[in-house]
Amino acid sequence: MQFSESWDWERAERVVAESLAPMEEHKWQEEIHVSPDGETAAAIVCIDDGQFGLRMNDTVHDNTFDKAWKPSFSPDGKFCAIVQQDEEWTLAVDGEPWEERYGFVWDPRFSADGSVIAAAVQQDALYGMSVNGAAWETLYENANGFALSENGKRTAAVVQVRSLGQADPVTFREGVYSVAVDGETWDNVFMNAWQPVFSPYAHRVAAQVRLTLYDYSIAVDGILWPMQFQCVWDPCFQPNSSSVVAPVRQGGKWGVAEDGNILWKPRFFNCWHLQYSPDGSKLWGIVAPGYGQFTVALDGKEWNVSAPVVTDLTLSPDGLRAAALGNHDNKAWHLLLDGKAWSGRYDMAWKPVFSANGHHVALRVRSGKRYGIIVNDRPVGGEFDKAWDPAFSPDGTKVLIRGMRGNTLLRIVADVPR
Question: Rounded to an integer, what distance in angstroms lies between the CA atom of residue 271 and that of residue 213?
Answer without folding.
Answer: 21
